[in-house]
Amino acid sequence: MERRTLFPGRALPALLILPQLVLTAVFFLWPAAQAIWLSTRREDAFGTSTAFVGLENFADLFADPLYVAAAGRTALFCTAVTALAMGAALLLAVFADAEIRGRAFYRTMLIWPYAVAPAMAAVLWVLMFQPQIGLVGAWLNRVGIRWDYRLDGTEAMALVIGAAAWKQVSYNFIFFLAGLQAVPKTIIEAARIDGARGFHRFRTIVLPLLMPTVYFLLVVDVVYAAFDTFATVYALTQGGPGQSTQTLVLKVYLDGIVNADVGSSSAQSVVLMAGVILLSSLQFRFLGRKSAT
Fold first, then answer.
1. PROSITE patterns per the record (predicted)?
2. How do strand 50-52 and strand 41-43 relate by DSSP bridges?
3. Tell me, what's the pLDDT at 170?
4. Which pLDDT belongs to residue 6?
């Protein structure tokens, strides 16, 4: 039987949701409106005057080969980070869900990296992979394997992908572990009695029951890789060497703050915002259909 809480009148419910409405208006709606407005403007070189240009900033954006290249790098970056973070988290969650001694300790240790700030995560990876003083980077050069992510774009991209994925593994691990614990044990026992063993049982029984969690984390990880990795990438490589690790969110910062091209930067922000809204809409629609069936 469904239970509902009824409030007398409308003043108290409105008062309860007012803080969230204020935060949404101040930190999302107002900045979004400002970005949309600025994307239709163009400033002179000194920022003393602006002119309305309509959609010209967007037209110039998609005609810019540097922006198209950054979009391709972002797609590669998001795909790699999402695949690594979800794959590693699912594997660790399967092991942590097993009946082993000290599993509570292992679960706690696997969750802790999520509390590390993005910039601090970048510092940790620098201490490991810096070619002169890094534990791993210096060792690679000592054994004859040339490693210097400051000069090699491929190595730099691999480094930022690894750092960003490592930061997200703990978040995914929490959801995957919760999803595994929600799988009815009777189903697992029935599959075991029927002869399903190991990976076959996981692929045919457990994974289908985890698919709502997988779809949710897929969208969350893509959004994370596209937006929340700015501090990690900037602290590690500043988008270099050259532009080999310059993703879209980093280009927004460089064009708007460093190069003072507010119109183009705002247009890029609007494009990114539209992409997130589209991904979120697809997630809610797809998960809604899954839950209805």
1. ABC_TM1
2. antiparallel
3. 93
4. 67
φ/ψ of residue 99, rounded to 5: -80, 90
Give the end-to-end CA distance of the chain in Å, rounded to a whole number: 21
Omega cis (within 30) before 118: no
**pLDDT attached to residue 97:** 84
What is the structure's pLDDT at 267? Answer: 93
| Residue ranges in the chain modelled with pLDDT below 50 | 292
Alpha-carbon distance of 149 to 19, in angstroms, equals: 45
Give CA–CA dist 214/238, Å, rounded: 32
